[in-house]
Design goal:
CATH topology of chain B: 60s Ribosomal Protein L30, Chain: A
Order of helices and strands of chain B: EEHEHHEEEE
Largest sheet of chain A: 7 strands, mixed
CATH class of chain B: Alpha Beta
Oligomer: heterodimer
CATH topology of chain A: 60s Ribosomal Protein L30, Chain: A
CATH superfamily of chain B: BB2672
Strand content of chain A: 25-35%
Low-confidence stretches of chain B: none
Structural class of chain A: alpha+beta
Largest interface: A-B, 22 and 22 residues
Helix content of chain A: 10-25%
Number of domains of chain B: 1
Radius of gyration of chain B: 17 Å
Helix content of chain B: 10-25%
Largest sheet of chain B: 7 strands, mixed
Number of helices of chain B: 3
CATH architecture of chain A: 2-Layer Sandwich
Mean pLDDT of chain A: 95
Chain lengths: ~190, ~190
């Protein structure tokens, strides 16, 4: 089984006070934790890649815990989440899909059982590529106020034989949310959708 | 005048491995950015004192954010840097007013000591543009292993009437320094140079 070889870990936290409207009483936090790791399948076609999914689980937990800590440490404050992968040019898009299970389950575990599917983005890119990671409400995907995204990337990653895996969490709705739809206060939170 | 802050963002990067070499402990850099309103956007104003006051405020705030994000004591900080990017309705001199007259003293308080010049860069720019923050040893500018830089970029800043102000702090030098020169351990840190 290939080990997970980490070259870098980075966190990014944004504290958003306003966007031209009334300043928020409590600023919205939007955070990302990412790791740049060696892609064990770069440079060739490997049919059975699923073992690496298992190997990624501890990294998923590590990033989820770091991200929660950087956002203040209280899982009850986390209202939105998302995840993504940037695969270096020596790999294939399918390698990015290996992050779905370990990234998603790690966040659910750290947050104590969030119900909604974790939205995700993935692509192949070169050094300095940016990834827009989608964000939705942790318990009800249709909550319109929490549809958001966070751009991430590192100037020196991913190299051709690397992958950048990322988790994103937010502490609330968009700072001036006013586009209607299902509100967080009105959700049932049973089926992960409404 | 105090800063009208729209956003604050903090990034932390750790390098665990480079060119197949393990970096133990990992080298770590932090950079904190404030996106603020430019009080002089769209007009020529002779007296830039209000921007100097804003610089003084942000030197302390952003320096402390970096130290907190690294989880170090102020004395453990090894290098620092500062930079500003002015949105298109401002002028380059606005960056100079924030960065040079008063930002340094509170930053030095946040990292303890700081005998060396704080290296800096400035430019005009728009949302999504890259700002490279130079880094140099905080007590002895000639420490060669600590000449470095860190890139910051925010997809939504600076807008035309905003200024992005960045302060970077590290607890280490480059991951694999081997170009000689004065080292961290050799530095006396009295005159700010050696």
């Amino acid at each position: 089984m290939p080990e997970v070889r980490i070259r870098k870990i980075a966190t990014a936290i944004e504290e958003i006070h306003h966007e031209g409207g009334p300043p928020a009483a409590v600023p919205l936090l939007r955070g990302a934790a990412m790791a740049v790791i060696a892609n064990p399948y770069a440079g060739r076609y490997v049919a059975d890649i699923q073992p690496f999914m298992e190997d990624l689980k501890p990294l998923g937990l590590e990033l989820a815990q770091r991200l929660l800590a950087a956002l203040g440490g209280d899982p009850r404050r986390i209202e939105g989440y998302g995840k993504g992968t940037l695969v270096g040019a020596g790999g294939e898009l399918e390698h990015g899909a290996l992050w779905h299970a370990p990234g998603g389950y790690a966040m659910r575990e750290v947050l104590g059982g969030a119900r909604a599917i974790v939205p995700s983005a993935k692509k192949v890119g070169g050094v300095g590529a940016r990834l827009d990671v989608p964000v939705t409400h942790v318990n009800a995907s249709y909550v319109r106020s929490h549809f958001d995204s966070m751009e991430v990337g590192l100037n020196d990653s991913p190299r051709a034989d690397e992958m950048l895996v990322v988790l994103v969490m937010t502490t609330g709705p968009r700072v001036h949310s006013r586009s209607g739809g299902l509100e967080a206060a009105d959700i049932k939170g049973e089926d992960g959708l409404r | 005048m105090s800063a009208q802050i729209r956003k604050i963002a903090v990034w932390v990067e750790e390098t665990h491995r480079e060119m197949g070499q393990e970096i133990a402990p990992p080298t770590r850099k932090a950079v904190a950015v404030a996106v603020i309103a430019n009080p002089f956007a769209g007009q020529f104003v002779q007296d830039l004192t209000p921007l100097m006051e804003i610089g003084e405020e942000l030197g302390g705030v952003l320096g402390a954010r970096c130290v907190a994000a690294l989880g170090i004591t102020p004395a453990q900080a090894q290098s620092y840097g500062k930079a500003a990017m002015v949105g298109e309705a401002g002028e380059l001199e606005h960056a100079a007013a924030i960065l040079h007259p008063r930002l340094g003293a509170p930053l030095r308080k946040a990292v303890e000591k700081g005998a060396a010049l704080v290296p800096s860069s400035k430019k005009m720019g728009g949302p999504g543009q890259v700002l490279d923050v130079p880094l140099g040893h905080k007590d002895a500018a000639y420490v060669r292993s600590h000449f470095d830089g860190i890139e910051v970029r925010m997809n939504d800043a600076p807008r035309a009437t905003e200024i992005m102000v960045a302060v970077a702090v590290t607890d280490s030098g480059r991951p694999l320094p081997r170009v000689g020169g004065l080292t961290h351990n050799q530095a006396e840190g009295k005159d700010g140079l050696r």
